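Q: Convert this sequence to structure tokens.
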Amino acid sequence: MDFKKFWSDLQNVNPKNPGSWPWAVKGVAFAAIFLAVVAVGYVVIWQDQWDEYSGKVAQEEKYKTTFLDDKKKAINLDLYKKQLLDTKQSFSALLKQLPSKAEMDVLLSDINQAGLGRGLQFELFHPNTEVVTGVLTEQPIAIKVTGSYDDLGKFASDVSQLSRIVILNDISIQPNAGGTLNMDATARTYRYRDEEEAAQKGGAKK
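A:
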């Protein structure tokens, strides 16, 4: 294109008579009008549609991520079921090691017999007030026994091997004048509160 001629034609065009414009001027004018229409259309119409489209694209990516996560869970569903079953079995096994309310007296007798069986002398064997901790009830038992070092150790071992869970805490061992040892300790055992007992406790509090 001869830009000098185009510039000369552009200066000499008659705005009131577009039909007489040179073809080069007509082409540039058409292109300018087209671009103006596109710009106005984008601002007035297409901008909202573009925003909506962008939102749909983002939503689609979110759905894809959710789908992939759900797919992974579905693939591992059998594994999760097995883990849940193993957890239930382990919990049931641990639950069986907790004495019921009716079995607490038997357990206290077993702890006492474990000490007597090792030749220990009980100076104190006092079950204290139960402490409710969630679904479990803790039974602390204050113990004071006298015996040799080996007998005290064997007694602690026997208590740990009882069929029910018993834990010795707050252990304090002191020598006495007779050449033996005095052991002060707190034996703690736990029992599972059944639904009826929990309901009664909750009703009493209410």
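The chain has a mean pLDDT of 78.
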